[in-house]
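Q: What changes when NA7 is included in the input?
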Amino acid sequence: MAASPETNTAPVADYDVLIIGAGISGLYQLYRLRELGMEVRVLEAGSGVGGTWYWNRYPGARFDSESYSYSYSFSKELLEEWNWSEHFAAQPETLRYLSHVADKFDLRRDIQFHSRVTAAHYQEETRRWQVTLQDGNRCGARFLITAIGPLSAPTMPRIEGVETFQGEACHTARWPHEPVNFAGKRVAVIGTGATGVQTIQEVAKTAGHLTVFQRTPNWCAPLHNSRIDAETQRRIKAGYPEMFTRCRETFACFLHTPDPRGTFEVTPEEREAFFEKLYAERGFGIWQGNFRDILTDPKANDAISEFVARKIRQRVKDPKVAEKLIPRNHGFGTRRVPLETKYYEVYNQPNVQLVDINETPIERITPAGIKTKDAEYAFDIIIYATGFDAITGSFDRIDIRGLDGQKLRDKWANGPRTYLGVQVEGFPNMFMVMGPHTALGNIPRSIEYNVEWVTNLIRYMRERNLTRVDAKPEGVAAWTDHVKSLGVGLLSNEVNSWMTGINTNVEGKQTRIIARYSGSAPAYRARCDEVAATGYEELALA
Ligand code: NA7
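A: The predicted holo structure follows.
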């Protein structure tokens, strides 16, 4: 039986740093800390590296940021040798890439797999963290780095009878490693977020019959993926330095950045032509590279929403179905925009049915399938594309305790409070990579910055024999207020979504919070750089 952290007296293994998670953040953090000559251990719940790309093996899973803009940028050799086969690589390729990174830099020898962290307690006497794993084993370190991802705690729907279903059932983020065959099968998908959309368009290709249970439609836009030919490959590689420079300069580290014009500063014809151009282009341009005011001015937002609604009506043959697929409770881009490949056309297929569960709510899952208010559906497979307990959820799942046994979960009960999204006051020597309140956007770009900032701080401490770093209350108050003020006026903060901390399936996550930093990535980095340049005066170092 696993011992609790209080009673287990078994000797613990000691390290300089413990990193939780071997995803993109954890791998890079390990690489950087090794350069400092530190003893590092990465604790990973899965059986392999990759994080998000390890867990999310669902059919159709792929990037919707351009693959090359999503690579690590720290190694020229790695950039040169890796060939992305498509503009938006599918999950298996991304997992191969991360596995290649782990091999190339010999990272695996410091990664402990099958090691889910259940508790992490700070001990002031030793200025060290003690970490407990699910199997009861423990280890300790001066520093604890959470590289646990903003979207890694999957949530099942709170629907009666979920456990009674007799067929195959799976959450998309816990997809089996073996292929699942849909041919001739009756398949249900619950959920139509970015994951649901990718799953639906893929499963519809082979399923005998697919029924989509939709609660809230999302505004989707075309991905326009294609293979990368040899000449394009050559151009991408030659252009890496400029591309990464551009990603450093854009608002959210994407290749795309808002157009400086306002929606109504151009003629209606110019506006229409610009929207058409964006709709025909690859990737997030229509969301991240649109007129500068579409996410702040409700009228501008209406204009792009009406444009995309027209596209949906053109693409879906049955007008009734088309109307169901058009969002009514939020405007374009105010939630995460799923990028799709023939998603809307799926609903023109004879083997696909859309069930609007606002009209006919799901009453329960039965042993045979799903019972709604007016029908009973039999299924062989139910796919739950029901999302994550986002941003703070992965922290909530670990018993993290700081000074005087204070629980992080309690501290954040009314929403996260952080210093630069990296530290939490009262939790000395703990750093978060991609925690709440940091710049997310094109995540690997943000990860590289975050990891390097943390590494530099640890280097600074070692050089001065400092063993304890904590955020100051005034620093936390100022940063948290700043993050909140940045959210004012953003239409996305007036909408329920994982980005505002809402999850109907999790107790206590029904109130919107400001969990994301919504300023520009360059401004975020400038602030963090300033802190480092002034000798971390804003932190309590000892
Ligand atoms: P999302 O975007 O949170 O989507 C979850 C979907 O599941 C969404 O359509 C939900 O409807 C639906 N859902 C959740 N619970 C239920 C219940 N109980 N009944 C019916 N439908 C439900 O998660 P994703 O995995 O798609 O994407 C998360 C991010 O990962 C994505 O944005 C990318 O950045 C990567 P709702 O909208 O809540 O009405």
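Observations recorded in class: Residues 443-463 form the longest helix (21 residues).
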